[in-house]
Amino acid sequence: MSDSVVSLSDVSIAFGDVTIVKELTLSIDAGEFVALVGPNGSGKTTLLELLAGLRTPDEGSVSRPDVDRDAAYLPQTPAFRHGFTAAETLAFYARLADAADEPQTYLDRVGLTAAGDRPVEALSGGMTRLLGLAQALVGDPPLVVLDEPTSGLDPEMADHVFAAMADIVAGDRALVVASHDLVAVERVADRVIVLGGGAVRLDGPPDALVAQSEAASLREVLSTVVAETEPQRLAVADGEGGR
Ligand SMILES: Nc1ncnc2c1ncn2[C@@H]1O[C@H](COP(=O)(O)OP(=O)(O)OP(=O)(O)O)[C@@H](O)[C@H]1O
Fold this sequence. Notes:
six-stranded mixed sheet, 36% helix, binds adenosine-5'-triphosphate
């Protein structure tokens, strides 16, 4: 029996005439830490929204386990209602989801143990992302989906957020994160999906992708994919665009 937490079969999404995701088939299994990487505009957010159930495909099908809360989604800049503390915020979401755990349990799991009494507007950018991660755990969804949770964070805090993400991946829970932080992705992810030109270009453990591409790093793997799928992007970067 498959332990998939979400499966896409021949899925396509277009905005007007532009196809963003083309006949994509992939499955995310319980216990996987999956990183979705690709250049700006390659469709990472669109695919994350599809995986989280916030978007339906134009073609193809999506299947997921039949549970009350099948996925949680953390947008790039999570926003919380001002005036509440971190603990009150989590208590609010726990009531909505009918979850039994105390707010402190979620705070402890993401390294915010001492921040329960802080008003959400007094949290740093990194702590706000961690509170978002805590909120994503409410209701115990089998899939947690995060969009660039370390953008704008200092390197120490970014490492802390990646470590907190790794900690919440368990036997029965998978995590999918879109990120441009390729050093952290290479170090922490079990599986990397490289998007380019509307399709999955590479899919596998980071060390295997680096070896298979005869590259020195995941950063170099991605550069090769961009050169193959979007040569015009490199021409613009080199100052040749529009001439
Ligand atoms: N609602 C929409 N209507 C029209 N085009 C859209 C819409 N949403 C996204 N797009 C386009 O779809 C493409 C993919 O967008 P998406 O945000 O999924 O990419 P991304 O890989 O997450 O980008 P980034 O790394 O910059 O966040 C982009 O060209 C974007 O302009």
